[in-house]
């Protein structure tokens, strides 16, 4: 049921607007506020699908109401109601985010068309947000254990912010998956997510990889090249295995976080960047700090939000769900019928020592699908799931 708020200091106009809108559609729930201050309080405490707001009012005028309301609930369409002398102001409110404006006295058809269009727009905004929160099938987080539920809850809370996140956990646990969830549920989802495996890049090249370089800055630098931070501008940069990054590169990353600026290798020109940084490591960074291999100031910049991804041995209850997910995915990739795992096979897999975590489990499931019988049994697990 659409909920509409009318903010208007003249009682007669409030009544007319409310009557016209209510009679147009009985499902509309129309509420009234006699001034801007009350209107803002009502917006804070309720979820409205549309606000109609007069411009000239005592206590707080409509322009101020518009500005405050857009900060509190930016998705609400706000239609401004203007007197003849307020038209210039009404046009200006469009620049401030108003959906439309209606002149007094309101034309019936114009009013109702505007109301319908605004409500349709709100519906589209809500649907778009819902779709943005859906994560790509390539990056599904499977599991219902307490540990995984806590991570999902944490992601829901922090994804829409620009808070930096440090993801820790053993190799193969799905730290990259968490990073993708954070990006795909964020407002940056339409911009790129750039991944950098800090452990796979030689230390002498990591700075060029991250920040780019100018022609002639070192042997082999035959032309100017943008780095990963520039490529991720507006989006997210995922620094995987950041514990393996050189101290000199760490210093440049720290500057990028502090100033939102980078400079290419061999250049003294600053480049402004707007990126969200998500980092991951399988190392204990506090131990690395104690050994002088990681900067403490960088650690505190990165670890605004800490997410610890558990080892598979610590979430064995999720193994049946993971096996089912991997079985369906692998069977689809190979174009073969989905195999079933007996309860005995699942029980043995839950007892296995998963030192390679999720990555190892996927490999074992694929092996069992290829080598096992039509129904994967406990005997198949004993034969083919050994290290």
Summarize the structure in words.
It is a single chain. With 387 residues, this protein is α/β, with parallel strands linked by helices. It has 3 domains: 3-132, Response regulator (Rossmann fold, 3-Layer(aba) Sandwich), CATH 3.40.50; 144-310, 3-Layer(aba) Sandwich (Rossmann fold); 313-384, Helicase, Ruva Protein, domain 3 (Orthogonal Bundle). The protein is built from 16 helices and 14 strands. The chain has helices at residues 11-24, 36-45, 62-72, 87-95, 108-133, 146-158, 175-184, 206-211, 228-231, 247-259, 285-290, 296-302, 319-334, 343-351, 357-371, 378-384, and strands spanning 3-7, 29-33, 50-54, 78-82, 100-103, 165-168, 193-197, 236-240, 261-262, 271-272, 276-281, 305-308, 340-341, 375-376. The chain has a 5-stranded parallel beta sheet, with helices on both faces. Helix 2 packs parallel to helix 3 (62-72), helix 13 packs across helix 15 (357-371) and helix 14 (343-351) crosses helix 16. It is extended, with a radius of gyration of 28 Å. The N and C termini lie far apart (59 Å). The mean pLDDT is 89.
Strand order of the largest sheet: 2-1-3-4-5
Gap between N and C termini, in Å? 59 Å
Number of strands: 14
Q: Give the mean pLDDT.
A: 89
- Please give the domain count: 3
Helix/strand-derived class? alpha/beta
Shape: extended
Give the % helix: 40-55%
Give the uncertain stretches in residue-range form.
none
Helix run count:
16
CATH C-level class of the largest domain is: Alpha Beta
| Percent range for β-strand residues | 5-15%
The CATH topology of the largest domain comes to Rossmann fold
CATH architecture of the largest domain: 3-Layer(aba) Sandwich
Q: Output the helix-strand order.
A: EHEHEHEHEHHEHEHHEHEEEHHEHEHHEH
CATH superfamily of the largest domain: P-loop containing nucleotide triphosphate hydrolases
As a whole number of angstroms, the C-alpha radius of gyration is 28 Å
Biggest pleated sheet = 5 strands, parallel
């Amino acid at each position: 049921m659409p909920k509409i708020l009318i903010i208007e200091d003249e009682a007669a106009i409030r009544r007319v607007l409310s009557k016209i809108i209510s009679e147009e559609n009985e499902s509309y729930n129309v509420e009234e506020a006699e001034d801007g201050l009350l209107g803002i309080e009502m917006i804070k405490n309720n979820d409205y699908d549309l606000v109609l707001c007069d411009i000239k009012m005592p206590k707080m005028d409509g322009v101020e109401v518009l500005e405050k309301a857009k900060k509190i609930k930016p998705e609400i369409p706000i239609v401004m109601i203007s007197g003849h002398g307020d038209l210039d102001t009404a046009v200006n409110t469009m620049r401030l985010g108003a959906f439309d404006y209606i002149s007094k006295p309101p034309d019936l058809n114009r009013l109702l068309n505007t109301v319908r269009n605004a409500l349709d727009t709100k519906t589209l905004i809500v649907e778009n947000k819902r779709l943005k929160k859906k994560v790509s099938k390539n990056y599904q987080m499977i599991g219902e254990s307490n540990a995984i539920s806590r991570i999902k809850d944490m992601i829901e809370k922090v994804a829409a912010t620009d808070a930096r996140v440090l993801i820790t956990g053993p190799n193969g646990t799905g730290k990259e998956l968490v990073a993708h969830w954070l990006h795909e549920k964020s407002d940056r989802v339409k911009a790129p997510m750039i991944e950098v495996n800090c452990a796979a890049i030689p230390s002498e090249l990591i700075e060029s990889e991250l920040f780019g370089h100018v022609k002639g800055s070192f042997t082999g630098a035959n032309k100017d090249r943008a780095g990963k931070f520039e490529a991720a501008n507006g989006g997210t940069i995922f620094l995987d295995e950041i514990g393996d990054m050189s101290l000199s590169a760490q210093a440049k990353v720290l500057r990028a976080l502090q100033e939102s600026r980078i400079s290419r290798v061999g250049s003294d020109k600053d480049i402004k960047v707007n990126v969200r940084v998500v980092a991951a490591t399988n190392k204990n960074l506090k131990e690395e700090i104690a050994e002088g291999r990681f900067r403490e100031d960088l650690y505190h910049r990165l670890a605004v939000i800490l997410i610890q991804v558990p080892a598979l041995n610590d979430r064995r209850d999720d193994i049946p769900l993971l096996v089912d997910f991997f079985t369906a995915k692998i069977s689809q990739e190979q174009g073969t019928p989905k195999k079933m795992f007996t309860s005995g096979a699942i029980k043995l897999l839950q007892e296995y020592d998963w030192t390679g975590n999720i990555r190892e489990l996927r490999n074992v499931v694929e092996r069992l699908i290829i080598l096992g019988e039509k129904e994967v049994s406990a005997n198949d697990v004993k034969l083919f799931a050994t290290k």
